[in-house]
Amino acid sequence: MVKKYSLLSIIGIIFVISFIFLTSSPRSLAIPNMQESPSPTSQPLETKTQPNVYYLTETNNVVQTNDKPEYDVFTNQERRERNFPTALTVIEPYLGDKIIYLTFDDGPDPENTPLILTILKENNVKATFFVVGTEVSKYPEIVQQIFTAGHAIGNHTYNHVYRQLYQSSTTYINQLQHNDEIIKGIINVRPRISRAPGGTAGHFTTEYWKALKVQGYIEVGWNISSGDASSAKADTILKNIVNQTNNNTFLWSHAILLMHDGKGHSETVKALPSIIQFYKEQGFEFRVINATTPPAW
Question: What is the tally of structural domains in the chain?
Fold first, then answer.
């Protein structure tokens, strides 16, 4: 009986040790790392490289004063479903001595946008890209590149077709929200900043402004035009910008420069290094558009 008891004891000890070893192994009963797979209510899903941006969540719909791009982890539809607010809280705008916001409309474009991204990287400068939904759908990898590089992305409506966009404030908002969904499908977040194709003058009524406020969009105009929407060459584009900047010193606290990276704007690409050099020589600080950016006028 003594020998049998000892054998059972030994087997029991071996079983206990084996059980402890298995349950303490990192391969067993592991709890998922919530930072690696964040829920929609905390942080957007990870990309290969996390950009230095600011995220809005259900508990924080107030944008901090900073110089980062700002994105929402929810679309407006998702906010409404969760009874979260859609409208943003108004905050104090940032005004400096010499501030320049480089903005590009109508992209992404497979030729121009990557070249612009390279130039910006070489000059250690951030910019803002107002993208069109139809082009976003065609070139999602470029949108991802813009986001990953730490630039700001803005909503430039779904199709940029005036006769459809400006039928009513409802059709306009619907296009913004459709573009939001497309953008979020690529980078897992969506922008709050938007820009009306052709500008708001002659297009917006009071109803448009009310709708934008309720839905939490920040409409972004411009106060310096590169003139690149025409057939202007690179040297003319540069002269347009230099003249407007020097002749309107009252705008230096928040100079917002309109350029285009869509199809047919290779001259803008050619002019960009000289444009950046001009503002650097004048001592301007480069910032991206976000909720702290003052209205253009």
Answer: 1
Using DSSP bridges, classify how beta strands 70-72 and 285-286 pair: parallel, antiparallel or unpaired.
unpaired
* In-domain check, residue 187: yes
pLDDT the model gives residue 62: 67
Residue 205 lies in a domain: yes
**Predicted pLDDT of residue 67:** 87
Residue 14 lies in a domain: no
Dihedral Cα 168, 173, 176, 180, nearest 10 deg: -160
Q: Across all residues in the chain, what is the average pLDDT? A: 86
What is the spatial distance between Cα 237 and Cα 214, in angstroms, rounded to a whole number? 37
The answer to whether residues 76 and 174 touch, using CB atoms and an 8 Å cutoff, is: no
pLDDT in tens, 208-232: 999 999 999 999 999 999 999 988 9
Of 207, 180, 192, 222, which Cα lies nearest the Cα of 91? 192
Query: DSSP state, 249?
Result: G
Give the span between the Cα atoms of 140 and 142, in whole angstroms.
5
The answer to whether position 136 is within a domain reads yes
Question: Which of 55-59, 77-81, 96-100 has the least mean pLDDT?
Answer: 55-59
CA-CA distance, 179 to 133, in Å (whole number)?
5
Scan for tokens 């107030």, then name that residue: 62
CA distance 258 to 225: 5
Enumerate the active-site residues: 105, 260
What is the C-alpha to C-alpha distance for residues 233 and 42, in angstroms, rounded to an integer?
Answer: 46
Q: What is the pLDDT of residues 120-152, one digit of tens each?
A: 999 999 999 999 999 999 999 999 999 999 999
Q: Please report the pLDDT score of residue 34 as a whole number.
A: 23
Per DSSP, 294 falls in state: P
Cis peptide before 108 (omega within 30 of 0): yes
- Concatenated DSSP letters for 2-57? HHHHHHHHHHHHHHHHHHHHHHHSTTSSPPP-TTTS--TTT-PPP-SS--S-EEEB
> The domain spanning residue 186 has which CATH number?
3.20.20.370
